[in-house]
Amino acid sequence: MALLKDLLALTKPRVVSLLILTTIAPMFITDRGIPSAALVAWVALAGFLMAGGANAINMWFDRDIDTEMSRTKLRPVPAGRLPAGAALLFGITLGAVSFSLFWRFVNPLAAYTALAGLLFYVLVYTMWLKRSSPQNIVIGGAAGAFPPVVGWTAMTGSLDLAAVYLFAIVFYWTPPHFWALALIKEGEYKKAGVPMMPVVKGAHETKIQMLVYTLMLIPLTLLPTLAGTQGLAYAVVAVLLGGRLLWYCLQLLKEKSVTPLAWRMYKYSLLYLALLFTAMGVDKYLPFGHRAPAPNIVVLDKPDAPK
């Protein structure tokens, strides 16, 4: 039982739960109607396995610095409850099983997109940028923006401009979200030698950057409405949620030190993204506030499976 608990911990289930929400919600906002329960179930399962595999590989690679931080030192590998090699094998296995499930029960494009998210997180963020650049979470954080695209491609079999909008929303949400945590954990990141923005540029510059990304994020969240894939109700919710996030950024900027406000902003940012994507799914089926969608622009169509 303890082994199963540790294996589950490797997947970071609380983190993955938000990723699954941002994967499933886009399935309900395409022009293909309501997804079947079976398709949603397969996407949720395969998505959990792919994200969990990426997290397990991350824990394998970061086992040296995880021992230096209070929030990570009790993870299964740094705490000595699981061998590092076992975590790596577990992560690769989850990724392989996930790819097979996506390919067999969803479609090849969704499989490739999900795998791209894992590879980006592991190779670009974990192994390259995290320890080398204060822009690590900006560029590497794009890995967290893949799930909405996976959900969209799972439903449509193609990569449309509307899916790119969803990718951009999560991409620009990531820096203010994660830097709020980095402000709180600045000392631990410094001790571990991780060049997070507060460590390299200081708290004040980090808060300015959080404000800048939030100001770019808010208009981006309105693009689905302007494109016609979402309605007026979603736009109202997006503005209200974004206004609160902006308020947190402005309040943080006024403070000369890091206070519990940063932690409250971090928790709110999680709620923000969950509510934003939930609003997308709900708004799609409201009988008012919609207009004709703009012409569909396909970026990448579904590849044929090899014969």
User: What is the third-level CATH name, the topology of the largest domain?
Assistant: Tetracycline Repressor, domain 2
Overall average pLDDT: 94
Distance between the termini: 43 Å
Low-confidence stretches: none
How much β-strand is present in the residues? under 5%
Quick gist of this model?
The protein is an all-alpha fold and 307 residues long.
Structural commentary:
The model has no long low-confidence stretch (mean pLDDT 94). The chain folds into two domains: 1-157, Orthogonal Bundle (Tetracycline Repressor, domain 2), CATH 1.10.357; 160-291. It is globular. The protein has a two-stranded antiparallel ribbon with strand order 1-2. It is mainly alpha-helical. The protein has helices at residues 2-10, 13-24, 37-61, 63-66, 84-106, 108-129, 136-139, 146-156, 161-184, 186-192, 197-201, 203-220, 223-227, 232-254, 260-283; strands at 158-160, 298-301.
